[in-house]
Specification:
It is built from four helices and eleven strands; from the N terminus they run αββαββββαβββββα. By secondary structure, it is an alpha+beta fold. The N and C termini lie far apart (about 40 Å). This is Uma2 family endonuclease.
Length: about 190
């Protein structure tokens, strides 16, 4: 039986990180940001999972009509060639419909993170900044799971963030043919 093991001390290369997680149990969800490994909370809370499911479903519905070459996937590994010490797991990402046989893909068009107790505001902010320098990335979303709060950062708006807090606020991402109310993302959760 595997038990929690601390990662090697100091900053890790991607190769060292991949070697470390190779024998770790699947329920230990590790990420590497700026060479620092950290374990995400596992399993995610049900509201966290529901928000991710709602977002992925709504994105897929829009993509099916407007961008059949793309799909939304949950819990997907992302790698940034611009930051070789970065391997993350996005809660939701839009990627090419024809996926490669890889764990961490470098081509993604939207990355979404749902705030949880296992990620700090600083770590999410750092991930957002790394996502935004990835040439293919057009949009980054950061969603609260405790209240109506969706941050939208887009390349088209020069990465200036906008926060939507009202359940009736309309979020539009024309790059993906996507439009929904904030409340649609929180359907089935205790957020009121």
């Amino acid at each position: 039986m595997n038990t929690h093991v601390a990662p090697p001390s100091g900053k890790l290369t991607v190769e060292e990180f991949l070697e470390f997680i190779e024998d770790r149990p699947r329920e230990e969800r590790w990420q590497l940001v700026d060479g620092e490994p950290f374990m995400m909370m596992s399993p995610a809370t049900r509201p966290h999972q529901m928000i991710g499911r709602n977002l992925a479903r709504l994105l897929d519905n829009a993509l099916e009509k407007h961008r059949k070459d793309l799909v939304a996937l949950q819990e997907i590994g992302i790698r940034s060639e611009e930051h070789p010490d970065f391997l993350a797991v996005a809660d939701v990402a839009v990627v090419d419909a024809e996926v490669e046989n890889e764990i961490y893909g470098t081509s993604f068009y939207l990355a979404a993170e749902i705030l949880s107790d296992s990620n700090t505001r600083e770590s999410i902010s750092r991930k957002r900044s790394i996502y935004s320098v990835t040439p293919s990335c057009l949009c980054v979303l950061v969603l609260s799971q405790r209240d109506f709060a969706v941050e939208v950062w887009t390349r088209a708006d020069d990465w200036k963030g906008r926060v939507y807090r009202s359940p009736d606020d309309l979020i539009e991402l024309p790059e993906f043919g996507f439009s929904c109310k904030v409340a649609d993302l929180y359907r089935g959760t205790p957020v009121k």
